User: Fold this.
Amino acid sequence: MLRSMSARCLGTSSLRVGPAPRNRVPLVLVVVTALFLSVPAWGRGRRKPSHPRASDACSMPADEWVMMSTEHQPSASERFASVWTGTHLLVFGMRDGGLFDPCTNRWTPASIRGMPIEIPDLGSELPIQPVVVGRHIVWLFPPSEEFLSPSSAKVSAMIFDTRGNTWSAVPRTGAAPNPGLSSAIVVAGSELLYWGVGQAGGCARLDPQTNTWRPISTRSAPFARPRLRAAWTGTQVFVWNGDRGSLYDPKRDTWSPTASAGQPSAGLPKVVAWTGSEIIVWGNITARKLDGARYEPLKNAWFAMAPMPATTVSPIYTEAFIDSGFLVVQARGGSWVL
Assistant:
């Protein structure tokens, strides 16, 4: 059942920290710090954010604002790139870089040796934004000199290892695709999986630990269309190409179609996401429909979702995402949860 909700019900846990706009390094750092040090960002009570260390605890006081440390922080720069890794904030400027741990309020210098200058120079204006694959941050580069220097255009990807504090280049050879905007990118375990269309063509999987691309089988694969949508279920990749759904098994390198009965109407969806037990395909931007369906892989079955109220606007003018298993839709007329 769809329910209307006030903005305060959403909670700041729905905030998504992504690449920052230029000239706003301090703002980005404050927002990320606030998410970790302010209790409301994690709900009521005095829970602290999870941390991969054995202690699983932050040393920062709960429900307090704390001045961010300036020791070892990157130099001020108008051009920079920033990435939220899930536990740390990584910032690269034109002269240096830094990795910030909100739990300890400490900066660690991040190497820029081997980093293409386009990464901080273009920042959020790069055609494809960085992807976090475990401890590795991956930048996919298009085969075009419109954005890149001739030397960088020969590279399919640049990888920064947060643990080793090193950069490495993946050459545009062998199974390497031609990364572009008309593509779907999914992190499946320790690999990055890429599907492209047209000039951004190619289906391949990247292992950041070995800096190698491997081809993805195209046998029984869905027909590639612009703006593919994909989601990782934990064992398989669900891909929606606008007409049908397909499941890719990375262990077997095989494709299988999903059931067609009850599937969503054809078109570009607003959301394709995994809730932990099912796939949600919702919001037909092409047909301007506020409908969708749920897919359960174990049953290979689609189930209809309740339609949005007729008073809401086109999916083009909505923001939708999955939060704790709920579909949250924000529009000018209000916010709704299913």
Observations:
- The chain is about 5% helix and 35% strand.
- Confidence is low (pLDDT under 50) at residues 1-56.
- Residues 110 and 241 are 39 Å apart (CA to CA).
